[in-house]
Amino acid sequence: MGEILDTGEVYRRQAAASPRLDSAELVQAHIECLVLLDPRLARVRDIAGAVPPRLTPPGFPGIVKVICGQQVSVASAAAIWGRFEQLPGALDPGTFLSLSEEQVRGAGFSSGKFRTARALAEAMVDGLLDFEHVESLPAEEAIRALTAHKGIGPWTAEVYLMFCAQHPDVFPAGDLALLKAVQHGLGLDARPSIKDMIGIASAWAPHRSAAALLFWRYFAVLRDREGILL
Question: Are residues 93 and 153 both part of a single domain?
Answer without folding.
Answer: yes
